[in-house]
Amino acid sequence: MSATRTAYATCPLCEATCGLEFEIGEGERVLRIRGDADDALSHGFVCPKGASLKPLHEDPDRLRTPLIRRNGRLEEATWDEAFAEVERRLPPLLEEHGRDAVAVYIGNPAAHNLATLLYGRVLIKALGTKNIYSASTVDQMPKQISAGLMFGTILSVPVPDVDRTDHLMILGANPLQSNGSLLTAPDMRGRIRRIRERGGKVVVIDPRRTRTAEHADEHHFVRPGTDALLLFGLVHTIFDERLDDPGPVGDHVDGLDVVRELARDFAPERVADACGIEAPEIRRMARELAAAPSAGVYGRIGTCTQEFGTLASWLVDVLNVVTGNLDRPGGAMFPRAAAGQPNSLGAPRRGRGVKLGRWTSRVRGLPEAYGELPVVCLAEEIDTPGEGQVRALVTVAGNPTVSTPNAARLTRAIEGLDFMLSVDVYVNETTRHADVVLPGPSPLQRPHYDLALYQLAVRNVANYSPPVIEPDPDIPPEWRTLLRLAGIAAGQGAEADVDALDDLVAAEAVRRGVGRPGPLEGRDPGEVLAELDGRGGPERLLDVALRAGPYDLTLADLEAAPHGIDL
Ligand code: SF4
């Protein structure tokens, strides 16, 4: 009898969320990884990185044991020793210097990991610091700010309906290379090809001749940093040539006259030299956008990581609005995710909107956004003496000395910290400076659900993956590690009752679920908790979120659908 078995899981390595099929042999060895042909979203597509999960899982350099710095060297330690070291070092610092003396940096992989996504925030709350940093502020934060101000929440980001659009305009994005960003759409190459096959048009605006540009109908080289000028030139043309027609969404739009006034000074003839694109071309692009039966404008990192990133991000959606393409098939649409999506929770028109700049960074006074300070401030917050100086750092799945600005200064600053703790599966350029490193399990040994990314998907799908490989009993799941750290930060010590803390987290999730419109509204919280099948950790929180979501799903429903559910 064959000892092999087949398992299915969503790839956690990028935003495309491809379904993978694993062949598992004796001794829980991964024999083969390929695309899951029956996956509800990716239909068998896979990129070479998907197969890298096998070497990643087997990599002898992947940490399986906590590390503690002793005599200047990171040495293997037991879990109890590691947590005891955190308890010995961190709380006294907070006691002496205040909660803001610790900074937290959350890396990009945390967004692809249910445990860090849901329990990282518990740790942050327990630490009580305003010094929160993440990869977002060197990537998509401008888009999240413009989306929050326009549409109400941090993830109210319209995504282009690439499967139905007749015209796709892409600025500063290279989805054929990135596999999509703020756009969960596996096989973008195929999707772009199909736009052209059905007679549609793909226009790329980018200072570089990217792979995506090579597969487009048109590529316009824009001068770096001038996207906002170009976009204003396009908006100007739409108004100037009376092409503006927001369609049904017009009933929900405020301030179009203000936008018209703002755009008045940005005629294509005025912005052309700065942008490096001739005025007649800008006018033609605007006309074609307005004339297309449906069109989506999509801007990504190139439109964000520049001086006018928030303005450019806003103008992308202004264009979608004034051409009547916001919230219509083939245009720029809001996904309706199964779980955890602020957009689809609560009563219509009752959102609280967003508040930005509630506090500022200590040294140069940059404003927070969604509870985060720009990571460009992190080095100076550590190396500038004074009241409120950062003296300890917690990193979760991040490598900021490589991936953020001022890397050399940040490295020097980190070397001067009083204490550093990293939750990470590798010793990398950043975590090698830590005093304690706590590893999590391999991506194949933890459950997976893309809570954030399904809020940005071209189709509404839900796909839960149980661990592909039997979890290693010597490596606690990250949610337990994060809760234990939260217990230390909250003064309960290294021996805090993790299950009791988790019960509190779940009770709070249920309390919120029954308190707002939706399937759980008005239910008895105790009754809801009792229905959760004795689950704990992120799976219980996911189950609550699914039950409170717009499709009235349960985790059991997803467990019964290993290829995901097309909603
Ligand atoms: S495209 Fe992304 S999600 Fe798909 S296999 Fe590659 S890395 Fe994984």
What this model shows, in words?
This protein is an alpha/beta fold and 567 residues long. Among the domains are: 67-139 and 354-438, Rossmann fold, CATH 3.40.50.740; 157-333, Dimethylsulfoxide Reductase, domain 2; 510-567, no CATH class. 36% of the residues lie in helices and 13% in strands. It is built from 22 helices and 18 strands. It has helices at residues 48-51, 53-58, 79-97, 114-127, 141-151, 175-178, 188-197, 211-214, 227-240, 256-263, 268-275, 279-291, 301-304, 309-322, 378-383, 400-403, 407-415, 478-489, 498-514, 525-530, 537-548, 555-559, and strands spanning 5-10, 19-25, 29-35, 67-70, 73-76, 102-106, 132-134, 159-160, 167-171, 201-205, 218-220, 296-299, 332-333, 392-396, 419-423, 436-438, 461-462, 565-566. The strands form five sheets. Strands 5-4-16-15-14-6-7 form a seven-stranded mixed β-sheet, with helices on one face. Strands 11-10-9-12 form a four-stranded parallel β-sheet. Helix 9 (227-240) runs antiparallel to helix 11. The chain is globular and about 70 Å long. The model has no long low-confidence stretch (mean pLDDT 96). It binds iron/sulfur cluster (SF4). The site of iron/sulfur cluster has 12 residues, from helix 1.
